[in-house]
Write a structure and sequence with these properties.
The chain is built from no helices and 11 strands. The protein is an all-beta fold and about 120 residues long.
Length: about 120
């Protein structure tokens, strides 16, 4: 059983940056692929980025490609999301996720574990 705890959310003006972190415990996190999702009010939870267990493979949603960077530190059991050039439409609760299989299904339900989320608010 893997527990995931997100941190680093907050409020920022458009064009600014934030770095989210996700701390994992309770399992061999280095054997899990990790990802980030977000959910805006009244909308479904959507995929943002994913990284393979060894950090070699990454994937991004088109809406964040070139602005967000996912990374991980298996020695510290953490995964991070660096968010630059933030836009008001990036406002959402951001969730960390983990799963053991890498495949082309980026729906939230396809991930085995998820955190409680951290709020990101971008003002114009």
């Amino acid at each position: 059983q893997v527990q995931l705890v997100e941190s680093g959310g907050g409020s920022v003006q458009a064009g600014g940056s934030l770095r989210l972190s996700c701390a994992a415990s309770g399992g061999t996190f280095s054997s899990y692929h990790a990802g980030w999702f977000r959910q805006a009010p009244g909308k479904e939870r959507r995929f943002v980025a994913a990284i393979s267990w060894n950090g070699v493979r990454t994937s991004y949603a088109d809406s964040v490609e070139g602005r967000f960077t996912i990374s991980r530190d298996n020695a510290k059991n953490t995964v991070s999301l660096q968010m630059n050039s933030l836009k008001p439409e990036d406002t959402a609760v951001y969730y960390c996720a983990a799963r053991q299989v890498w495949y082309n299904d980026y729906s939230w339900r396809s991930w085995n574990y998820g955190g409680q989320g951290t709020q990101v608010t971008v003002s114009s």
